[in-house]
Amino acid sequence: MRTEEVLSAIATGLWRWDNAAGVVTLDSEAARLLELPPEGRTFPESVVRARFHPVDWNEINGVVSLAIAEGTLAEGRLRVVDDEGRVLRTVRSRSKPVLFNGAYLLDGMLQQVAEPTEGTAARTPITGDWRRSREAFLLDAGRALAEARSTAEVLRVAASLSMPGFSPDGLAVFGAAGERLTIIGHHGHQSAGDDPFSDMRLDIDHPAAEVVRGGRAVYLPSPEEYNRRYPTSWPLAQRLGRQSWAYLPLIVAGRTMGAWMAAFRHPVAFTPDERSVLTTVARMLAQALTRAGVAESERELSLGLQRSMMPVLGPAIPGMTVAARYVPTGGGLQVGGDWYDMIPLPSGRIALVIGDVQGHDVRAAGLMGQLRIALRAYASEGHRPDAVLSRASRFLHGITDTYEQADHSGSRFATCLYLEVDPANGGIEIARAGHPEPAVRTADGTVLMRPTEGGLPLGIDPDSDYPTTRLTLEPGETMMLCTDGLLETGGHDLDTGWARLREVLEDHAEQGSLEELADSLVQAVHGPVSHYTIGPLADRREDDVALVLLCRDDTPTRETPRRTAITVAQAEPERISSARNQVRELLHDWADPEQVDSAVLMVSEMVTNVLVHTDGHALLAAEVTCQGATSPRRLRVEVTDSSDDLPHKRRPGEMASSGRGLMLMEMLADSWGVDPRGEGKSIWFLLHESNKPTSDADG
């Protein structure tokens, strides 16, 4: 009897599928099974493909790809349909794929099988409920592995996967490094320390080593098969009581990075469908492990950069306490351009520096490191604050210009606040380069933003000047320096962000240490954080945060004055508004609000007169003092200018727009006067706090 007759008698046909040529050759029985003319023999791919159910066709493509990758046979079941899409029969395909020039050649057989064919929902190992369960499982597994952020999390997710119908109860992940293979994680497996194969050479007789060497999966459906193929490692595997094993390569970008073992207590035949699930999980696991490894390396590098660039505050300043925080932004390496520093000076004073280089990337961090070193060098040479910032600006302009020419990445700038502190008397000299102004909380809890003169950010103009502002930190007062990340995060601008922080400063006026205050300020913006924070919280941050708090420790007395000062330049008339706000904040707890309004009105008149009638700047100094527990408080405001022309009282008409300043002071102030100076003059007024209650004033 001929072979063709035997195959026809058992409803089995032969085919050759040439993917490169796009044709399929069928014998007469295969053509009959597919409802194609038996005399045709060779058909286009599209004609044969149209005879298979589209769902099954997608499945068999995956089976063929898996067989090519593993060097095994491709097996599957497919439903044959007519021109109307009705299922006629189910055939079993078994073929050997050969890859050639990116295409494949299949030589195999088709055999009719007895399967229910009613409708279009015939249940086979490839289609029906099992297929839907498998798709749902792979979708959930992919989502869970994609969300894992560390190697430990990836291994926990892999251990919790419940595969449809054949869940393993033992897992191990082997990592390849050089010529060695190491177990990097396991579940349901014995301790790696008791396993002689937890660290082995790649040339050893072990299925994981063979998988890494060849890049192809190894399936061991029975203990007998394991013992026959790997007699050296079988004694250890035998002790664990498993019945089937699957070892799959972990491949990323064409490189085998390790192997994944799945062990089963029940026998598993490893059908094409089961192998397909295991292969897909192995691919997702390899990608997840790679992502986790990259993320862990970035976190380690980020922490290293932060710790190397953020100094530990010290030495201690006699009579003062300092607290500082740095919180990086989220994303990338979580490093940026914010920094702070404390520098001992040759004069015995201490310099405090806080700044922000534009950007949140590695280049910003690198520029910050160079700028910080330059600032330390200039300060250590004994230069004054204005000279330190001028030199730093020229330095940054030079190196950013070099960067721009080298990589066309654009020049960058930096904001900076530089303070020189005298611990003996609390004197502070401040130079500011485009940075947010400092804030001061007085001994009685009053919180004021301290206006300071400033220049352009560092690096923009190499010839920029940075005027110096002098003030005194009184006993019990605390100064806050911060970058704009602490103010503007969460949709706030500088004004609303400052209002948020002001509440925190006021709430801690009489309780808590300086360290607790620093934590509270950061928590008001980001929630609880440590000095260096990495993880989900960091991902929600919009900008880096640097914060420095300086407190003068001397015990305050009731006689400690409450002071503020501000310079209003001819070119900055808008700062008259800041002067009014300073006085209003200074008198935030004044008993009579009408007196507060009077003081603000007189300040506005005094400063405006200087700008209108002289060519110089106006220096406003305001001070609230108390002579004793029973004495009323007193406000003294003085405005100084460089003009020698003394003001004189006029009688303006009804329609006059000026000339009422001195008349207002005579009406509203308890006393006032004009004092000539060596160069210029000062005009001042006194206002004694009224005992009139606030409620009466409102009425």
UniProtKB/TrEMBL annotation:
Coiled-coil stretches: none
Keyword Magnesium: yes
Keywords from the UniProt entry: ATP-binding, Hydrolase, Kinase, Magnesium, Manganese, Metal-binding, Nucleotide-binding, Phosphoprotein, Protein phosphatase, Transferase
GAF domain mapped to chain residues: 136-299
A Pfam family hit: HATPase_c_2
SMART domains given in the database record: GAF, PP2C_SIG
Superkingdom of source: Bacteria
Keyword Nucleotide-binding in annotation: yes
Enzyme nomenclature, EC number: 3.1.3.16
Domain PPM-type phosphatase: 317-552
GO molecular function: ATP binding; kinase activity; metal ion binding; protein serine/threonine phosphatase activity
Catalysed transformations (reactions): O-phospho-L-seryl-[protein] + H2O = L-seryl-[protein] + phosphate
SUPFAM superfamilies membership: GAF domain-like, PP2C-like
Record function comment: Primarily acts as an independent SigF regulator that is sensitive to the osmosensory signal, mediating the cross talk of PknD with the SigF regulon. Possesses both phosphatase and kinase activities. The kinase domain functions as a classic anti-sigma factor-like kinase to phosphorylate the anti-anti-sigma factor domain at the canonical regulatory site, and the phosphatase domain antagonizes this activity.
UniProt name for this protein: protein-serine/threonine phosphatase
Classification of source organism: Bacteria, Bacillati, Actinomycetota, Actinomycetes, Kitasatosporales
